[in-house]
Design a protein that fits this description.
alpha/beta, Immunoglobulin-like, binds adenosine-5'-diphosphate, binds magnesium ion
Amino acid sequence: MSRIFIFTGKGGVGKSSVASAHARKSAAEGKRTILVSTDMAHNLSDIFEVPIGREITNLSENLDALEIDPEYVMRTDYQHFMQSFQEMLASPGIGMGEDADTVMFPGLEELFSLLKIADLDAGGAYDRIIVDCAPTGDTLALLKFPELLGWYFEHLFPVGKFAVRVLSPIAKHKYKLELPDGKGMNDIEKLYGKLIELQRLLKDNSKTSVRIVTIPEKMVVEETKRNYMYLNLFGYPVDGIYINRILPESLDNRFFGEWKKIQKKYGDELAQVFAQKPIYRIPWYETDLRGMHGIDRIAGDALTDMDVFRVNKEISGEIFEKTKEGYEMKISIPFAEKDDLSLTTNGADLILRLGNFKRSIPLPSTLTTYDITSAKLEKEQLAVCFSPRMDEKKDA
Ligand SMILES: Nc1ncnc2c1ncn2[C@@H]1O[C@H](COP(=O)(O)OP(=O)(O)O)[C@@H](O)[C@H]1O
Ligand SMILES: [Mg+2]
């Protein structure tokens, strides 16, 4: 079983460098490792100073790399899915008619990057898959996509009731069902199954780690906190923070005096915010890090912890618990502000809005006859209580 490490953060903070340093370290530990870039502006080739590109390229012993071209993945690995998908959009039920082949869901193309990662995992050739992501916004859009599209599949498309029942995360959770072998399912149901699998894979904290790279500066720290909040909202397991570009303490130059103070302030803030998580600190080097030598400096200075690849098991994502009055759902959303948060339900889903993000959390079927009775945001945790609907109670 491979472990997946996803590196995210604002543009330019050092994601590619840090991800590459992990890849080098991992390979040196004798683990079969692949470094994968999902950033459309790939730069692994620059770092390793060899052409990489859309086919898996061997870099050194135990280390391969790949710069994913989602278009290419779609054309080579998922051609027939796309065909069925477009036929379905054109079908009378959906009624996009001739527009179907021009309509693309935003983010659909990038989804193939994630499917590629899932396929690398399923292929079993690697112990560790290290993912160098696009800047925060794009990564979040990407990470929420499988769930969003899964939702569309369930609600708008002809995914058989059976498939939904068997594949949906709740069914899994409740009945511990395994994915059927796909016989008897149509292409759309298979793709739906893959999306569900993908969510499971990326949100499974024994399997996937999301690592945030940041620098100790106001704007970046603000963004880091928001990023962390949204990752929590979607249930992605964050288990490591990298503070990059720390000015060396020994630097004795008046010009940098003020910068050192600023860095200390925001470094302390990060330490407080992420007190529960492993924090790795990377010095600011006198030159940029192009080339393997530069990358190895990060590994040597900051990743000396034996356990940088450790599984950090923590509860993430939402949990439902039985209470006296009904059920309670808990989800941890650090930094969320009450005023930015809104909750509604449409019977089947709980719809959580936070700033520009919206998440539909499917409710266990028991709860479809329940109402939300209260919601509380306290200590970075949202607790939503459900009780049986009044008229249902009467009937019972
Ligand atoms: N600690 C550091 N000291 C000096 N240069 C760095 C450091 N971290 C990153 N860099 C340089 O900063 C630039 C951006 O880093 P990169 O890893 O490509 O960021 P990202 O992938 O987040 O956009 C690169 O030129 C890289 O070599
Ligand atoms: Mg990069």
